[in-house]
Every structure is written in structure tokens, then in C-alpha cells.
Amino acid sequence: MSLLHVTIDGIPVDVEKGTTILQAAEKVGIQIPTLCYLKGLMPDGSCRICTVEIQSRGRSKMDTACSAHCSDGDVIFTESESVVKARRGILDMLLSNHPTNCFTCPSNGECKLQDLCYQYGVEKTSCPGEMTNLPVDDSNPFFTYDPKLCILCHRCVNTCHKIVGCGAIDTMERGFESVISPAFGMPWRESNCESCGNCTAVCPTGALTSKRKKTFRPWQIQKKVRTTCPHCAVGCQYDLLVKDNKVVAVEAADGPSNRNTLCVKGRYGSFDFVHSDRRLTDPLIKDRSTGEFRKASWDEALDLVATKFKAIKQEHGNGALAGFACSRSTNEDIYMLQKMVRTCFGNHNTDNCARV
Amino acid sequence: MTNTIADVTHESDVILLVGSNPEEAHPVLGMQIRQALQRGAKLIVVDPRDIGLSKQATFHLKLKPGTNIAFINGLMHVILEEGLEDKDFIAQHTEGFEALRDMVADYTPERVAEICHVDAGELRAAARLYAKADKAPILYCLGVTEHSTGTEGVMSLANLALLVGKLGRPGCGVNPIRGQNNVQGACDMGASPTDFPGYQKVTDPEARAKFEKAWGVSLSDQPGMYATDCFPAMLEGKIRGLFIFGEDPMRTDPDTHHVQKALNSLDFLVVDELFLTETAKMADVVLPGISYAEKEGTFTNTERRIQRVRKAVTVPGNAKPDTWIFTEIMRRMGYDQPHLTPAQIMDEIASLTPSYGGVSHARLDSDEVAGQGLQWPCPTADHPGTPILHVGHCVRGKALFRPAAYTPSAELPDEEYPLIMMTGRILYHYNACAMTDKTPGIVELAGGSFIEVNDQDAAKLGITDGETVQVSSRRGVIETTARVSSKTSPGECWMPFHYMDGNCNWLTNAALDRIARAPEYKVCAVKIAKL
To answer: What residue numbers bound the domain in which A263 lies?
Structure first.
């Protein structure tokens, strides 16, 4: 297939037919700002922020880079004066229905709208007037939807329908009354929403926010540790967000089996247990006469275990001991457990919970 | 899985989903199946219960629990009757076809319809849809394995894939969706009474010699005991000391009374745990281990993909890494095991396990692997891993058909216990909830146990939706909340196995699969009574 030749900000690039301007720009390392665009899905084209200027066959036009396909000979400008003016206008319009009390917004510091207003120097709207004042939906235990902060980019809706495949939410009503909501305006909690939170992860503003965010600010995260979810066998990759030696949230990663998606257990149910006050912190030895446990030192507990196991082996033979491994633990743990059984218990009475 | 999650969901034309509810038990895989349906793939659901995906399926064969083998034999009967088998594949890549052909000859759709309570016409149509598809994976889960004939159920699915040549190609294969995060790894690592790491048999003198040399001890030439066989052996006094690492059989094993008696009969029980679980409460010594967020290591997912687990936070109190605990016990029992880091342990695994030969933490962390993990077999440090098994030819040379005849479940309903009860998972919890019930939002969304009762049965019993009922079997009695619907067929009910209150495992039957020794969680006889 013959290639199309286009120029983006003076850089020539050859692309295949059907390539969008956004994809072509990405190929040569030029970043065009987006709000509603979701990689891998059909463009929504609703926010218009990726508007670029295209000169083709002696004409000049403005179009959205996410949806416009490259034509042979296109000369594209991604930050020309008219592009910047258009983007300022779009941000101005968005701010006409978006509060700017960012200090109290949970997404302050990681808001794409805030970033773009900063980048293009848009401080406030030139068209002040009535703003959306619909109620907050706080019904889901893990996240909140605040229509006042919503810019109706539909990233959440497209994620829920086309990536998660659940279809719990959609854009309800029309015009100024438009709002993201489960069917018939029912509360999130009562809908068929699966609480996976993938919608909150793609929200560019503070409209859909995890309630976990109340415990930290984005800049307080000291490290993000890439790991594997400990629940089912899909093996989703995610980052544990750590503040003061505590996991405070999870962020999906582009793992081979999960591609930036997570379920409710992975996103919200995979770290509270780590910091639970019910965790065991010391070895316990039971007094068989009372049935009560008492705390013991490691030396005492381990010596007791070794002595008892050796005595049982001596009295009843090698077959009298067994050790079960845990299918939730790491390969390295399990390897050492079976090695302990085979080398020290003197038999192959080892198994794991694959069957149960 | 013979294949990868990406290729079974992105490349398939038809998905045959048997005994699996991935939207709840493996949600991110479920999401990808829903994407596959949006792009036009067709779905056949074989499940006794209405699951979310059955609404989107071309066919939902709502078969009677415990009749998978009859059903699969029926599919093969139709395929052979209509000449839809892959004759070239059978000739080139398989052996034992004649025995299979003879065995499935009896499984006419009409007979199978009667055994399985499905429509013969739908069975025929489903067989055609699967057989004629270019790319069609079989995805299955515990609905196939948790039966007294579970292994034979798996063999039957393998027979089916072989019959139509859907093996060793993208978008095909026989794909078990493993239950827990590292069930695959636990089996790979030799936590098995019959196998050393990498499925090297303990009865094979060469394998034994290799491990004896590496570990510097002499090893038993007798296979050990499966965990599920250990419980009766405890009652007989054959097993007297037990070390349990992170398992909670008091919650998760079938027939809890039996488990309780067995654990009580031990001379000495040691439990290495994060929490004082029901099983830990019965221990003589409890050792505090550490969680996945506090350690380095690897998990192996259902696609045989080895991925890293990394330490994010430090350990609470005096809890210790589990490998430290095992090493200390080994040392104190007289075996000179040095303390190794998880990376060093993986090096030892790689040196003794051919399928993990090219795996190391350094490599998994490298730019080369780029966060994609490595899928075994990965025999050498320059091997890229193996996304699809059996490509070109089967691993054993020629694939062997292993025909299996249908036999009914161990405990069938009768006058006293007239209902079949199945057990399974829900979206919000994982297994015994030890981890998930520490998240208040999860408890808020799914706080307590329930039983799904068929609406016709409920009407007969005078039970309404939301009512507390008594459920009993030959082994125990519990109370739980009835959820009345048509999700299950008349005469059948279903319970999640996560909950401490109304735990269904007081009722389940410890009948074991004759080969793999998995319990028959999916079928036991119960009765439901109004309180």
C-alpha cells in the first residue's frame, strides 16, 4: 500500500491510509492535547481540544486530530496562533460551566483541565453565568460523581461501554441538563455498576473521584510500586501507591493481561488487609490445657516447631508429617515450603489449595 | 491455558465457555470477553445457572449440574455424525481416535438431552457453531473440575478440541481459567505429592537423583498424600503433625465438621498466616508471615505468565518473610539451608526446573521483558517464552484421545435432600474473604451469605425473596438468606463459598475426583426449610 506524506510542525512523516493526525503526530513525538480521546477506541470527538490547523490543496481548515484522517500532502500545525486561539476558546467555554475552586478539589494537581488552562493561560471564563448545580452522587462506597465538575467528555461512558463492557452509565438529559448517570437517574449504588472504578481512572477532572483520595494528595505519594494483583489468576498489573509506608491506593498498569483495566477487588480490595489491625504481629503458642494463645519469641516458637516435628517423625516415621502450601503466595515461598517438606519431613506429603 | 488471554479474547470467532463465570470470578477477563462479543465473536455458555454472559450468548445450554461429560460427548457425537471433525489433524497429530469414536457413538443428542436437561436441537446447533468456527477457544473453570469426575471432564474437553483441530493455534486451545492468583505457580513449584518442581515425577529415579544431588539429601521414592486425602489420614492417626501455610481449610474445604475433627486429632498443628483464621485458631503454634505487598517474588498467572511481585511497604510488628520462617525450621530440624533472597531462590528454581530455566528476577525486571512477564516453557535465558502450547505438534508427540464415559455425581438428590446445591464465587469477594473483608466498601456491597433458590421451588416451600432459611445436608445445617429467582433450574440451588456466616462448606460433600482428588463442590444434595 502506498504511503501518505504529511508534514506536522515542519516534520515530514509517512503514514498508512486511515491514520489519524493524532496517531501521525504521536509517531514523530509531537503531543497534541486531548480530553475525550481514549486510545484504542473510536474517537468521540466531542471536546475539540485536539483541534489542529490543516493546510491542504491551498486551503486551510481546523479539525480535530483524534478523528481527522491524514490526506496526502497535508501540512499540519499543532500549536499555530489560530490553534492556540481555538483551544483557549474551548477552555473558556468549559470554564463557563466548571467551578475553579481547585484548592478543595480532590483532583487538584492531577486534573487535565487544570493543566490545559495553565498551559494556555486561561485563568477564568469570559462568559460567566449560570452553572450546573445537580446533586452529587455519593452512593457508591468507592467513588463519587460530582456533575458540577463534569465536562461531559464521555471518557467514563466510553470506558464503561466499550472497555469494561458493562454499560452501567450513559449521558442522560440534553443540553445544559446533561449529566452522566446510571439508567433512569438511579443512584450509582443501585445500578448494575460493578464498582470497578475504571471510569474514575479515566476522568480528566475531579468529577469521578475515588474516595481514597481523601487520604492523600497526589504529590504526597512517595513511590509507586509495580506489582501483580493477589486475587484471581488473570494476573493484572498495577502500581501500589505508597505514602508514609502505607499503601493508600492502586493504579492500573498496562499489563499484558489487563491493559490498564482492573476490577473492584484489584482496585479497591487489595491493600486494606495489609494494614489491618487484625494482622498477626508475633508468634503465638497455645497452652493446650486452657486453649489460650500467648505471644512468644521467634526462637521459642521455631524451636518448639522443630522439636515437635522431629519427635513425631522419630516416633511415627517419615510419613507422619505433612505441609500444605498456599496458592495465594509467591513461587519462591512455595518452592521453599515444598523443599522443607521433602528435605526435612522426609516425604512428599505436600500439596497446595489448587483443589479447594 | 494452552493460549493467552489476549488471543482467546481478541482473535476468536466463537468462544465455548464451560462452567465458568468470568464476569465475577475473573472480572478483567470477563471484560475482555464482553469486548470480544462487541466485535462480533459468538459465545456458547454451558452452565447450570444464568450468568451475566448467558444473556449475550448465542446459546446458553443450562445443563444439569454434574453432567458435563455426557454433554461434551454429545457435542462430539454431533460433530462426527455431521462430518465436522478435522480429519487431517486427527490423522497427523492424534492417536486413539477409534476408541473415542466408538465411545461417543452412544451419546446421541436425544439421550444427552435427557441426561443433561438440555434441548437436543440446541446441542446440535452449538456443536456446529463451535466445530465450524475457524478460531474457537474452550474456556473452562471450576464448573468442570470440581466434580468427582472432574479430571475426566477436562479430558473430554481436550478430546473435543483435538477432534476439530483447535489446538496449537491463536484463538483456540483448551484454556482452564485458574482459580487463585498463583494456583498455576503452586503446581509448577512442586507443591504436589507426586511432582517435584516443573512436573518432574517423584517416582522417576532420574528426577529424584537430580534433586537429591542439588539438595544433598536422600528423597523418598514413594509419592506423598494429596491434601484432601490427608484429612481422613489425620483421623486414622497416620498424619500426626501438619504445617499449613496460608490456607484456611476450616473455611474452604468441604464438610467442615470432618475437617474440624481431623485437625483436632493432630498431635501438632502449625499455621503460618497473616490473620488468626478459623484454621489458625486451632493451631498449637501460629507464625506471623507477610503479605504480597511486603515481599519480593513472582506469581504465575493462568496463561503461564511469570510476573513480578514487589515489596512496597515494610513488615508490621515482628512478622517475618515466609521463606525466612521455612529456612529457620529447616535449619532447626538439622538441614543446612542457607538464608536466600527471593531472587536467589528463583535462581535455584531455574536451575532445577526446565520450564523455568530462563527465568530470573533480573530478567523479569529488564528492559527486554518490558513488564510483559515470561510465559513458560522458557528453558534458557535467551528464550522469549511460549505464548501458545502445542504449536506444530503436541508436546507429547501425538495427542492421545482419552475417552471418558458419563457417570453421575457421588451424591444425588433424594426424597430427604431433594435439591442439588452448587457453590461458587461472587464478584466482590475472594475465597475465604481473609483479604477482601478488610475493605469496608466491599463488605457494604456484599456483606453476607445467601442461597439462590429457583422460584418454582421457593413457591412450593412457601419461601419469599430475602427470607432467612435453613439449609441442611447429611453433613450439616446452616442458616442463610434466600434469593429467589430463575437463575438456577428447578431442583437446583447455588451458594457463594466466601462467608463465615452460613458457610456452605458445612454442607458440601468431600467426595473426591478419582484422579486429581478435588472435592465435588459443585454437586451435593440439600434441603431448604422455612424457619
So the answer is: 219-279
Which residue of B192, B197, B230 is in closest CB contact with A335? B197
pTM of the model: 0.95
Q: What is the pLDDT of residue A180?
A: 96
Which chain B residues touch A349 with a CB distance below 8 Å?
A: 193, 224-225, 230, 239
H and E: helices and strands count for chain B: 20, 23
pLDDT in tens, A12-44: 999 999 999 999 999 999 999 999 999 989 999
| Cβ atoms of residues B68 and B18 within 8 Å | yes
State the Cα–Cα distance between residues B351 and B344, nearest whole angstrom: 11
A195 part of a folded domain: no
- CA B410 from centre of chain: 19
Q: Judge whether residue B254 has pLDDT over 70.
A: yes
**Do residue B228 and residue A356 have CB atoms under 8 angstroms apart?**
yes
Tell me the pLDDT tens digit for each residue of B21-74. Answer: 999 999 999 999 999 999 999 999 999 999 999 999 999 999 999 999 999 999
Is A227 domain-assigned?
yes
Which CATH number do you get for residue A244?
2.20.25.90
Give me the number of domains chain A comprises. Answer: 3
To which residue does cell 490427608 refer?
B230
pLDDT, tens digit (0-9, with 9 covering 90-100), for B297-308: 999 999 999 999
What span, in angstroms and rounded, lies between the C-alpha atoms of B209 and B211? 6
Q: Which member of A227, A335, A349 has the closest CB to residue B225?
A: A349
Query: What one-letter code names the amino acid at B260?
Result: Q
Is any Cβ of chain B less than 8 angstroms from the Cβ of A164?
A: yes
ipTM, 2 dp: 0.95
Report pLDDT for B501: 86
**Quick one: closest CA in A to B31, which residue?**
A164
The domain spanning residue A49 has which CATH number?
3.10.20.740
Are B295 and B342 a contacting pair, CB within 8 Å?
Answer: yes
A273 and B285 within 8 Å at the Cβ level: the answer is no
Residues of B in contact with A347 (CB under 8 A): 220, 222, 224
